[in-house]
From TrEMBL:
One of its GO terms (cellular component) is peroxisomal membrane. PANTHER family: PEROXISOMAL MEMBRANE PROTEIN 4. Pfam families: Tim17 (PF02466). The lineage of its organism: Eukaryota, Fungi, Dikarya, Ascomycota, Pezizomycotina. InterPro entries: Pmp4 (IPR019531). This is Peroxisomal membrane protein 4.
Length: 217
């Protein structure tokens, strides 16, 4: 056994195999992370808000977990594989990473894994990423020397924007989602809509103490 482990260690430490092995490790980490993130979330959401038998709910939990893990694993392989390809296609012949390689590799992975899959799990992942990107871009927008108008933002203005950006973002986000839920609920994702119905609509109806405080309906 020790001899086998030594051979495996020598194999995975071979620098010539590092690019290929990084794909395997990326897929492995995608599966593990996707499973750890999705399983508890799906377990709570499905058992609380979905109807059906226990067996059906367990099946839905496992399906969501598998989909999330597969998406992240596949994206990791496509992204890392694209990065390797772009490095080897570098016109300078240096095989170094280009400034925008990560952008184009992410574009490829985003299309292959998420762009052609409009399922609820894929939508949730993309929307999560989109929200984080918007917050990051908002922070970058006021950093010095980031764009032609950066010189117009004084340090005092930058501080004021930083201090007030999150309250404004949070307030407007909730203002918009509540307005949409009130007048155009069908446009919201089903999971978000069901949770909002439970909190904001079902709380307007009861006919006894039992379904006022103990049970929802």
């Amino acid at each position: 056994m020790d001899a086998l482990m030594s051979r495996l260690d020598a194999l995975i430490l071979n620098p010539d195999l590092a690019p290929l092995l990084s794909l395997v490790k990326g897929a492995r980490n995608g599966v593990v992370y996707g499973s750890k993130v999705r399983f508890p979330h799906a377990l709570v959401m499905i058992f609380l808000f979905r109807s059906g038998t226990f067996r059906e709910k367990v099946k839905l939990v496992l399906q969501a977990t598998r989909q999330h893990a597969r998406n992240l694993a596949t994206f990791a392989m496509v992204y890392k594989g694209s990065m390797i390809l772009l490095r080897n296609l570098n016109p300078t012949g240096t095989r170094k990473e280009g400034r925008y390689d990560s952008f184009f590799a992410g574009l490829m992975g985003g299309y292959v894994v998420f762009g052609r899959n409009n399922g609820s799990v894929s939508q949730q992942i993309v929307i999560y990423v989109f929200a984080r990107v918007m917050l990051a871009l908002a922070k970058l927008a006021i950093q010095p020397d980031m764009h032609p108008f950066s010189s117009l933002i004084t340090p005092e203005t930058r501080t004021q924007i930083t201090n007030n950006a999150w309250p404004a973002f949070a307030s407007l986000s909730w203002a918009m989602v509540m307005y949409i839920f009130r007048w155009y609920p069908d446009t919201l994702a089903s999971s978000l809509r069901s949770s909002m119905v439970y909190i904001y609509s079902d709380s307007d109806h009861w006919d006894s103490f039992r379904n006022f405080l103990i049970h929802n309906k």
